Amino acid sequence: MNFKKSQQAFSEAKRYIPGGVNSPVRAFKSVGLDPIFIEKAKGSKIFDIDGNCYIDYICSWGPLILGHSNDRIIKGIEEIFAKGTSYGVPTEIETSMAKKIVEAVPSVDKVRMVNSGTEATMSALRLARAYTNKNKIIKFGGCYHGHSDGLLVKSGSGTLTYGIPTSPGVNSTVIEDTIVCEYNNIDSVKKAFREYSNDIAAIIVEPVAGNMGVVEADLDFLKYLRDITNENKSLLIFDEVITGFRLAYGGAGEVYDIKPDITCFGKIIGGGLPVGAYGGKAEIMDMIAPLGPVYQAGTLSGNPLAMHMGYKTIEILEENPKIYEELERKAVKLEEGFKEHIASLDIKATVNRVKGMLCLFMGEGPMDSYDQVMKSDTDKYSIFFREMLNRGILFPPAQFEGLFLSTEHSDEDIEKTLEFAYEALKIAYN
Ligand code: PLP
């Protein structure tokens, strides 16, 4: 495969953009390559500027559950463009969007739209602190909740990939109120509550961790988080920026039958445009300005173009509940295929799957905690990634990210992926 144009584009980008990219993981640094630059994408396929075509398992890191450039969600966008792109005063589609989310997620009575997942979690924490009149928050090692200062501690995703789980520039006074506990470890949460019981405003958790690969939370662990926050008058915040509308129509809250106090959304609810949201019990949400004293605002929040893309996406998911069965069936097909390869090559690799979310770890399982996941062999993953790329399969350019499937990934795509994965694993483990 020829990557000449992408290489040139990257050299040019590096002159004007730090690291040549607008989000670190895009640099492909951890897999030892220059990034590919994209020309266009359709369905499950993405095309780079050198004309190479790939089956895409990044799918914009989650928003594109209906695949790239889906005709049904794009339809009508020109009309909205023609009318106007942003008003700074309300539009009816914002209410339609809020109603859809409220109807889909029983723990959400009211929801506020923002522009990213980072804004959603940051605002949710501010609200939790104001509501409880407490200061500290608990997060879990390996969970990523965006890049706001207080949450950039022992984080996941690109911070794991680049070995900077706590960033310089984050003021120590900001993070002294962030307590980091161990994912799936009830004792670590117990200990935190013993020490700071009167001052814990909230626990924020990814109900399925999607930023240290894919790691499922034990049901008992999630139930415990619900109970201990109730007992201590703290709030439970589910960060469903990845899992919302992906794990099921009602997200992880529906799958695990747990009602958090606040839920954060992003990705799918923007259908590929910049969107986030946070919602929860009316009594809590009504503390936000202009009803209450908790300030949070946004020039482009509830933007009509973004609302259109998100609304249409959610509408299609609502009308076609079988989409979730299909996503899971495809994920199982990949999982079983990877497992067969692992067995026949007799290599130490592990597949984690939760519904339609999955990850292939280059290491021996069980991959059920941050410590275990960190034992993965990232060098082997780099080789695997490069071999797959050269065969026209775009996997996430980092070990600690899950694969994103869409309705547009065909059985043929998956079979091809598995065929090439065998060769790539063989080379990576040679
Ligand atoms: N929360 C989770 C679980 C995420 O995976 C992400 C991003 O990947 C975020 C929050 C931050 O969202 P954004 O990148 O839209 O700011």
UniProtKB/TrEMBL annotation:
Annotated family: Belongs to the class-III pyridoxal-phosphate-dependent aminotransferase family. HemL subfamily.
Quaternary assembly: Homodimer.
Modified residues (N6-(pyridoxal phosphate)lysine): K267
Subcellular location as annotated: Cytoplasm
Organism: Anaeromonas frigoriresistens
Pathway terms, separated by semicolons: Porphyrin-containing compound metabolism; protoporphyrin-IX biosynthesis; 5-aminolevulinate from L-glutamyl-tRNA(Glu): step 2/2
The keyword Isomerase belongs to this UniProt entry's keyword annotation: yes
Pfam (any one): Aminotran_3
A GO cellular component annotation in the UniProt record: cytoplasm
GO BP: any one term: protoporphyrinogen IX biosynthetic process
Protein's recorded name: Glutamate-1-semialdehyde 2,1-aminomutase
Keywords for this protein: Cytoplasm, Isomerase, Porphyrin biosynthesis, Pyridoxal phosphate
Chief subcellular location: cytoplasm
Record has Nucleotide-binding as a keyword: no
EC number: 5.4.3.8
Annotated GO MF terms: glutamate-1-semialdehyde 2,1-aminomutase activity; pyridoxal phosphate binding; transaminase activity
Catalytic activity: (S)-4-amino-5-oxopentanoate = 5-aminolevulinate
